[in-house]
Design goal:
The complex is a heterodimer of chains A (about 350) and B (about 270). With about 350 residues, chain A is an alpha+beta fold. Chain A is built from 5 helices and 22 strands. The C terminus of chain A is likely disordered. The longest helix of chain B has 17 residues. Classes of the chains: A alpha+beta (about 350), B alpha+beta (about 270).
């Protein structure tokens, strides 16, 4: 059987930053291995829930500009959840946030994000790829995971788990309230004592803009400089998802999934887990503020957010067994570029 | 200055201080034993690392030991921060007695020339001959303080004070795979891929500090070095370096390992 007879997805175009991600590579940070994983983990989990997959099944993380995909499988069920991307199957617009079915020869086109930055394209049964250190998550800087350790390229082919695409109900997410994104909640520390009171005040009152230097490793923000009290070097220690470090220029950097495991800049605060998905959907040029909550408050918020996520994953709505997407009005190409004006 | 630690205090006479517990957002706690680079701080971190590992606390996901703190990742739906902190405080006060295996590695290094483009400049800065820099560096009794920054990347303490060198003003965006470098009072051994660095490049090692093919190997894991390991460097000529690289790439560790002892826990009376 040749490679093309096994079920798979062929990337005709890869998009701006498409990579295979699951919920991250745990247990190896002590050896310098970055965690990686989906930046918007709840969106990945929902995409998997729509297909009956395990929550941590690896999917394609799509960034700002989506891929063009040829379906090379008899039947496959897919779901796209996250930022608002226009999607067409053979030219017919698809609604996102629900599972859909595709067949051999179909072409799936995911355009430019109209709002938000990242979405997750999951397939029923998952992709057939060998995990590295227990995870399929791609860490491009150390060439780990994914297909060959890097972002996906045009021509790449992702094999599907054979026989896993089969029957299943077509499910949709219930309408979700748009997340409030005026401020990201943070817990101060562990090195907030490296900043002056004025520096902390600036950090918590000013509005910061996402700079063009925003990727899976971290988001560099631009805004009023945050003053250090005793230099900006510490003896290196561990960094977590959401750690905010401020180098000598006073501009905060929020470190994300692909961050280094350790670092030598003092960390003023940490974005709480519940607000990381908001951050993951911010685009360069968009602004946001930071507001402090206590560690105890943050823990309560995160426990509530986890419970709400579990409830969402359990509250999927069956929308019938339509084998083919209904023909909705074809998207005009003008719609595909509408999102660009906001960048 | 971050790279000039205070004079080392005698390890055994130091009273056991309660570390600081600092929040790192939700789902992570930092147990900080100090703000300095010294052996007793590092040993306290590693003792807690072993104790938490041995205790198998439900809800603890993974531990990241660094120079002076232990980062504890946990799942707050399984264990709340307050309960975890209590458990950790108990473990700090009564560290487990399991000894740490004291390991000494001998690691070949090709110094200068194409392998270490900053050797001459470092020598000039310290008014030494390049050969003297090599001799001093290779004679240092290094200790691995931390694996971090990149897979298998080893931070070494114990650099001879004659070679303490401020970091470069302009960091390089790429430095060669396998680099051996110095920065401040430290030295570093790089894994076999290019990395950004502001440190001075003295040489290269054929040893693959990171090799995923060693996953599952009981003696040498994917990360060759572990915090607490001792390291001696052994200069090799460029020809031998190339041969050793070929052997290393074929799977031979090309580093020599000696098990020195199992150090008993240094518990103050």
């Amino acid at each position: 059987m040749s490679a093309n007879d096994t079920p798979g997805l062929r990337l005709v175009e890869a998009g701006l930053g498409t990579s295979l991600q699951d919920l991250g590579r745990r247990f190896f940070q002590r050896f310098g291995i970055s965690e990686s994983g989906a930046l918007d983990a709840p969106a990945l989990r929902l995409a998997n829930a729509l297909l009956g997959n395990e929550p941590g099944t690896a999917a394609l993380e799509i960034t700002l500009s989506g891929p063009v995909i040829d379906i090379e499988a008899e039947r496959v069920r897919l779901a796209l959840v996250g930022a608002d991307f226009p999607v067409t199957l053979n030219g017919q617009a698809l609604r996102t946030g629900r599972s859909f079915e595709a067949q051999r020869g179909d072409r799936l086109v995911i355009g430019l994000a109209r709002q938000g930055a990242r979405a997750y394209l999951a397939v029923a049964g998952g992709f057939a790829a060998a995990p590295t250190l227990g995870s399929l998550s791609t860490h491009s800087r150390s060439r780990l995971g994914g297909l060959d350790g890097g972002y996906l390229k045009a021509g790449d082919r992702l094999a599907l788990t054979p026989g896993a695409a089969g029957e299943g109900p077509q499910l949709a997410l219930p309408a979700l309230p748009a997340p409030e994104a005026a401020k990201l909640r943070v817990v101060l520390g562990p090195q907030d004592d490296f900043y002056t009171d004025e520096g902390i005040e600036t950090f918590l009152s000013a509005r910061y803009q996402v700079s063009p230097r925003a990727d899976r490793m971290g988001y560099q923000f631009e805004g009023p400089a945050i003053a250090h009290a005793k230099g900006f070097n510490i003896v290196s220690d561990g960094i977590v998802n959401g750690s905010i470090q401020v180098p000598g220029n006073g501009q905060p950097i929020v470190l994300l999934a692909d961050r280094q495991t350790t670092g030598g800049y003092p960390k003023i605060a940490t974005v709480i887990e519940a607000d990381l998905p908001i951050l993951a959907q911010l685009r360069p040029g968009e602004g946001i503020g930071f507001t402090a909550v206590t560690a105890d408050e943050a823990e309560e918020i995160v426990l509530e957010a986890r419970a709400a996520q579990a409830a969402r994953e359990a509250a999927l709505v069956e929308v019938g067994a339509a084998r083919r997407p209904p023909a909705i009005r074809a998207l005009l190409s003008a719609d595909l570029t509408a999102g660009l004006a906001r960048v | 200055m971050r790279h000039n630690p205070p004079p080392r205090e005698p390890t055994l006479d130091r009273p056991l201080e309660l570390p600081r517990f600092l929040p790192a957002g939700t789902g992570a706690l930092v147990v900080e034993f100090g703000a300095q680079v010294d052996e007793s701080t590092s040993e306290a971190v590693l003792a807690l690392d072993r104790a938490v590992t041995a205790a198998g606390i439900e809800g603890v996901i993974e531990l990241v030991p660094t120079y002076r703190s232990l980062l504890v990742h946990f799942d707050p739906t399984v264990i709340r921060a307050a309960a975890l902190r209590q458990t950790l405080e108990t473990l700090v006060a009564h560290p487990e007695a399991a000894p740490r295996e004291e390991r000494l590695w001998t690691i070949p290094v090709c110094y200068g020339g194409a392998c270490g483009e900053d050797l001459e400049a470092v020598a000039k800065l310290h008014k030494l001959d390049p050969q003297e820099v090599v001799a001093i560096h290779a004679a240092s009794d290094f200790r691995v303080y931390m694996i971090g920054f990149a897979p298998g990347f080893a931070y070494l303490g114990g650099l001879d004070p004659r070679l303490h060198t401020s970091r470069r003003v302009e960091p390089r965006l790429r430095t060669p795979a396998r680099s051996v470098s110095i920065g401040g009072a430290q030295s570093a051994l790089n894994p076999p891929f290019e990395l950004p660095s502001g440190w001075h490049l003295l040489g290269q090692t054929p040893v693959r500090l990171w090799d995923p093919r060693r996953e599952g190997d009981a003696t040498i894991g994917p990360s060759l070095l572990l915090p607490g390991d001792r390291v001696r460097l052994s200069p090799v000529e460029p020809g031998e370096y190339r041969d050793l690289c070929a052997r290393a790439d074929a799977g031979d560790p090309v580093a020599q390992l000696q098990i020195l002892s199992r150090t008993a826990e240094e518990t103050p009376a």
